[in-house]
Amino acid sequence: MSYIPSSNDLYAILPMIILSLGAITLLGIQFWLPDDQEHTPLLVVTFLVFLGALFSIYVGATSTPGYGKYFKGQFTISLLTSWLNAIYVMSGLCTLLIAPKALEQTQTLFAEFYPLLLFAVTGMTFLTSGNDFIVIFVGLEILSLSLYILIGMARNSIFSLESAMKYFLLGAFSSGFMLMGIAFLFGGSGSTNMELALHGLNNSGYLSNYSKIGFGFFLIGVFFKIALVPFHAWTPDVYEGAQTPITGFMASAGKASAMGLLIVLFSKIAPGNTSEPWAYLVGVLSLVSMTWGNLAALRQTNLKRMLAYSSIAHAGYICAGISVGAGLEALYYLIIYVFMNLSVFGIVSYLEEGKRKVDIASISNLSASHPYLAIALSILFLSFAGLPPLGGFWAKLFLLQRLAESSNPFSIILLFGAVANSAIAFAYYMRIPVMAYMRTEVGSFASWDSKVEWGLALVVVGTLLLLSLGWLVFQPGALL
Predict the structure, then answer these.
(1) pLDDT at 189
(2) Whole-number mean pLDDT of the chain?
């Protein structure tokens, strides 16, 4: 057997090659640039690397090498993985437009930010494109190590250092669970190939027990990354303590990669009696997560903590769809959710200016002095709530429709739970437009003045167009 990769193998991982080589190049370039002039060239090179990776994802899916398995079945290009990779790259691109100015205000914009961002996206692509559990684990570690450093870059903030330590410790635990799961899956099937290892769930006898224990351990690690209840405790503290643009990247691309992995895993399990216990497990956790996330978000006054608990609830909605096989609808929800999250956290970082905390009360009467900002925040939060005809409504509708059409009796419970939780969520999401437009008290940001950030404006305007008009042409069927 030849272990020398073919040209198609190399073409298959071309996006990863572009991202990783770009990151390594940036690590070298920074030493040749003056300290006061290094960020503009690094930003431009990173921007071009992301564009190159995005183009290579398109070419790889549509022409060369096309859909299929590569590197002896260890790597996959499919419609699902191509869309997921595009989400990660677009998230990195949006973060690149938003983050530098915000990090510069807190004196935490280091030259290493740019290669770390590229390495994080590289890890995400391997996480969901790998068809072998070892490849997936390597992708997870590349992503996790990059995020640990990105969160802890604010060395002058005790809150950021605390967040980095909490995320590191819990990330290490989750990685340990996943690695133990891979070992048991290998013991039950004799292979780390995803299809063969998960096929071990169909075996009888003690080998099947090995596979079931292994898959359970592996799912625990995935649930940590998704932040499903009861594996969610790190989320509010880490989201609040990290620099806001980094929080936005974690809450969008980071969470999308973990949920993308869950979609891939359930697409590989044979339907029938084998998959039902795991579907029930994910369904129960999703119901608990959406309920706890929304109830906890009701009590929050800090905007970042409210968004953190909100993210737990949204993870519950998506995982409820995954439990009944709603792959396409879950992917569509992910796309809408990622851009909403990036825009909201971008606006929060813009309001903070590196020195403020954004409480809900602080945006009272914001519309009087900053009407465009108030409009953007209101549309984004109303879309989070699922108000028609905004994109968040359609994403939730398609997912709930799939729940309603499922033949699984438990899906009816999930459907009612999701609808009830959407009503609860409406209560705290509506607080933002109410504060911005319907309060006479003047919040701290009503008299605040700042220059327009064009990178953030580009991301927010693009997201608002997607949410307001995109549903006319962009629906789950458009992903095929």
Answers:
(1) 83
(2) 86
Lowest pLDDT segment from 150-154, 273-277, 299-303: 273-277
Residue type present at position 89: V
CB 109 within 8 A of CB 30: no
Pick from 346, 306, 316: nearest CA to 427: 306
Give the contacts of 420 (CB within 8 A, at least 6 positions apart): none
Model pLDDT, residue 447: 59
Within its chain, how far is the Cα of 450 from the centroid? 29
CA dist 125 and 76 (Å) reads: 11
pLDDT of residue 323: 86
Nearest C-alpha neighbor of 76 from the set 13, 156, 23, 120: 13
Nearest C-alpha neighbor of 256 from the set 308, 187, 319 = 319
Cα separation, 20 vs 22, whole angstroms: 5
Q: Beta partners for 68?
A: 77
- Beta-carbon contacts of 172 under 8 Å, excluding residues fewer than 6 positions away, are none
Backbone angles phi, psi at 14, to 5 degrees: -60, -40
Q: What is the pLDDT of residues 425-460, one digit of tens each?
A: 998 999 988 888 887 676 666 556 667 788 888 999
Task: Report d(CA 340, CA 321) in Å as an integer.
Answer: 19
The reply to whether the predicted model has a pTM over 0.85 is: yes
Cβ 51 vs Cβ 90: under 8 Å: no
C-beta of residue 228 within 8 angstroms of C-beta of residue 293? no
CA angle 388–394–399, rounded 5-degree value = 135
Please state, in angstroms and rounded to a whole number, the distance separating the CA atoms of residues 11 and 64. 7
Q: What is the DSSP letter of 30?
A: G
Phi/psi of residue 194, nearest 5 degrees: -60, -50
Q: What is the mean pLDDT of residues 53-63?
A: 90
Q: Are 410 and 278 in contact (CB under 8 A)?
A: no
Q: Which amino acid does the sequence have at 408?
A: N
- Mapping DSSP onto H, E and C, the string for 379-405 reads HHHHHHHCCCCCHHHHHHHHHHHHHHH
What are φ and ψ of residue 70, in 5° steps?
A: -135, 170
Q: Are the beta carbons of 267 and 307 closer than 8 angstroms?
A: no
pLDDT of amino acid 16: 93
Contacts with 285 (C-beta within 8 Å, 6 or more apart), sequence order: 223, 228, 229, 316, 319
